[in-house]
Every structure is written in C-alpha cells, then in structure tokens.
Design brief:
5-stranded mixed beta sheet, oxidoreductase activity, membrane, transmembrane helix, alpha/beta, 2 domains, 41% helix, SDR_fam, oxidoreductase, Rossmann fold, 6-stranded parallel beta sheet
C-alpha cells in the first residue's frame, strides 16, 4: 500500500481504528475522519504508541456527518490540500441517536449512515477517478435483511418506523442499494465499489443507547445485549424426533437437518467468536439411541429414504452429532475450546408432540399409550435431564479433559461407530456437508444456504 492514500470515516475508534492500524502497517497514508477532535487526536497518538509511523503517513481531519455543511467543508478542504485518494472507506455509523432529527431535517441515523456518505462520495468522486484504479468500501450490516419494503414518503425521516433497531437496518439497506448502483456506474471508470458486513462488533456504536430509547427500556435491553457480546458456551440442545414434513426446503431429511446439519452450520459460523472468548465450550445434546446405528449409507445419509427404523432418522442424527463431536474435540483442543456431547437419557418433553402427524393415526394410537406408560416408569423431568448439559458447560475440571461423552454428569462410553476416525472424516468431508462448512479463514462469510 506504499504511496496509497486511504480516507476512513469514523476512524478514531472501533472498526475504523483497527482498519487504520492495519493499513498503516502496510505502508498506506491514512486520513482519519471523525467529528470528535479530542478523540481523533488521541487516536493518532495511540497509533503512534502501538505501531509507530512516519508523521507524513497519518492525518486527522474533522467532519461531522450529522451536518451536510460540515461534510461539504471537509470535502473542499480535502480536495484543496490532499493530492490523492486511492481508497474511500465509509465506516462511520450510529445505531442510536438522542436527537431524532438533524438540523438538516433528516433522521439522524439515516443521515449519518447513508445520506452524508452519499454526499461525501459524490464530492470526492473526481478525486477517486483521478487516482484510478481506486476503491470505495461501505460498511453495511446483516440487519438490512429485516427491511421488507421502503416507504418513500417517510424514507429519510422514518417517523413511521417502529422497528426495535429503529432506522439502522433501513440505513444499511440504503447503503447496499447505493453500492449496487455505484458498482455498475463506476465499473468503466476503474473505480471498484464494495460493501462489507463486519458482523456484530461491540464498539461505541451502542453508547447513545440510553439517551435514545430512555432509561427503562435501556435497563431491560442493555444487559441482554451485553451478554450477547460474549459466547462462553454454545449449547446445541434443539432437536426433534418426529417430523410431519419428511424433507426440508433445502432437500434434507427434516430430523437430520434440525438435529445435526443446522447445528453443524451454526457451530462453524460461530467458531471464531468462541475462539475469541476462549476458554469456551460447545455442548451437543446426543442420545443413547445412537447405539442402534450399525452402519451409515452415505448415498442416503442426509435424506434417509431407505431408513425404516421405528425411530426413523433420529438415531442416525444423534450418531452424526457424536461423530462431529469426536472430530471437533480433536481439532479444537489446541484452541482451548472444549467440545462435549451429553445423553440426557429419556426426558418427556414436547419432542413427542408431532408424533401423530409424523407416523399416522393408527400407529399413533398403538404406540403412544405405551410411551405414555413408560413416561411414568423411566422418563426424567426436563430439570433433571438438563443437569448433564449444565455440568459440561460449567464444570472447571473438564476444560482440558479428553473425554467427550457424558451421561448423568459422568463419563459414558459410546458405540465404536461414533469413535471411528475414518467415519468422522467422511462425515466432515462429505460433499453435501461442503455447502454448510464455513471458510477456514478467520472471516466467516454468510452462506447462501441460509437465505
């Protein structure tokens, strides 16, 4: 990046600051832009302390995105004083705003996140074209998917918007629409345009939350948000034994997808977060029924058309969970992520609710009374059944344990099939699982299968 000049809005903290630090180390000249002069100057000093740099390679400039006048003033100064602009990173953004409208009369979140970046881009476009090949990068958000329609009569004020996140998702949808159009319009000018989703990052974006939503909603919502900042344990507990619809819309056996494939996908998508919060743990709820599985037909593994067991695909799904746990336990041990599978034994829960629709009325009236009798003889309560999951999630002595399967808060053996290295690798490498696996690099991309 030597000789390149990169402008980063919101560069004094959070994602923008980390972006600036990385690009400085690559030799780029960085223009940090922020409305807070004190914070901007402090960021420059902090960067100097952390990595050191040539004084000519960094500059702080003030710009308040809540004011179009400030944006125009900044752009004019930049054009007059800076020779180059190779990359424009529109990173600044807010999720909450104490003042609903700016002095320009627009929703504050919409103006900061989209309108001012729209204006800034257009004011600096000639400079970007002069330095081509150049790039524009907008920071978007996965929350844009919650926007189903746009009311243009209220688009930039959002008076009618009562979403939990207010105007934030709409502002990010606007960013993506703008990116989509610019990508097409500027392609022939050798100016590349991109939008990125950094996922959920805990930054100062949440600071104005209390003033924006009020004290009572704040004390209700903030502890929940703060809790989700960390993932110390992922407990994959959800499961079904019966399903009225044999296949999901993705084309897989419903029981297999709910019990195994979706947990496989969820684990991979959250793996970086678990590694960041290590020591952390993953707990899968398995079942003793896995012992009834003697072999796996890979040609039918995820559809189970050939499966005529009384319990259908349920035992197979739990065998897959154990094979996955066995492989993950080995692969993640050095990352300080503990992986366990638990057998809660037979617990009477709503897992049996779809039984009638799944097997039909006649088999149901034969089987259900028998199950109901055994409920009083053998079944545990949900409270008792949860004990082993809790034990594996919190017991300190298990963090570096090589054991991976537990029942009644104690180590239990599994069938030889579920500790078979070649089967575990086959399951991991199976071509139908490839569409679920997250990339091996540190950036987890959203997989198309989710949408």
């Amino acid at each position: 990046m030597n000789g390149k000049t990169i402008l980063i809005t919101g560069g004094a903290s959070g994602i923008g600051y980390e972006t600036a630090k990385d690009l400085l180390q690559r030799g780029a000249r960085i223009i940090l832009v922020d409305y807070n002069i004190e914070k901007g100057n402090q960021a420059v000093k902090q960067l100097s302390f952390e990595i050191g740099y040539n004084e000519k390679n960094i500059r702080f400039m003030e710009c308040d995105l809540r004011s179009f006048e400030s944006v125009r003033k900044f752009a004019k100064l930049y054009i007059e004083e800076e020779e180059r602009l190779d990359v424009l990173i529109c990173n600044a953004g807010i999720a909450w705003a104490p003042n609903f409208l700016t002095k320009n009369g627009f929703n504050t979140v919409i103006q900061v996140n989209y309108l001012s970046h729209f204006l800034l881009t257009n004011l600096l476009l000639d400079k970007l074209k002069q330095c081509r090949p150049s790039r524009i990068v907008y920071v978007a958000s996965g929350s844009h998917r919650t926007v189903r329609s746009i009311d243009w009569s209220d688009a930039f004020t959002q008076f009618k918007n009562f979403r939990l996140w207010g105007a934030y998702p709409v502002s990010k949808a606007f960013i993506l629409l703008f990116t989509y159009k610019l990508k097409h319009d500027l392609y022939s000018n050798d100016v590349d345009v991109f939008a990125v989703n950094p996922s959920w990052v805990w930054t100062s974006i949440h600071s104005p939350m209390r003033e924006a939503i009020g004290f009572i909603p704040f004390i209700i919502c903030f502890p929940t948000l703060y809790m989700f900042k960390f993932i110390l344990a992922l407990i994959c507990n959800a499961g079904i034994a019966w399903a009225p619809n044999f296949l999901t819309k993705n084309g897989f056996n419903t029981v297999i997808q709910v019990n195994y494939l979706s947990h496989f996908l969820l684990t991979n998508l959250l793996l970086d977060k678990l590694k960041q919060c290590r020591p952390s743990r993953i707990v899968y709820v398995a079942s003793g029924s896995h012992r009834t599985v003697r072999l796996i037909d890979w040609s039918d593994a995820f559809t189970q058309f050939k499966n005529f067991r009384l319990w259908g695909a349920y035992p197979v799904s739990k065998a897959f969970i154990l094979l996955f746990t066995y492989k993950l336990k080995h692969d993640l041990y050095s990352n300080d992520v503990g992986v366990f599978a638990v057998n809660p034994s037979w617990v009477w829960t709503s897992i049996h609710s779809p039984m009638r629709e799944a097997i039909g009325f006649i088999p149901f009236i034969i089987c259900f009374p028998i199950l109901y009798i055994f409920k009083f003889i053998l079944a545990k309560t949900p409270k008792t059944g949860a004990r082993t999951s809790i034990f594996c999630a919190v017991e300190p002595s298990l963090q570096h344990s090589h054991e991976f399967y537990f029942e009644d808060c104690a180590v239990e053996t599994v069938s030889s099939l579920c500790t078979n290295h070649s089967l575990a690798n086959e399951l991991w490498n199976n071509e139908k699982c490839d569409m679920y696996r997250a990339p091996k690099n540190s950036t987890i991309k959203l997989l198309s299968i989710l949408y």
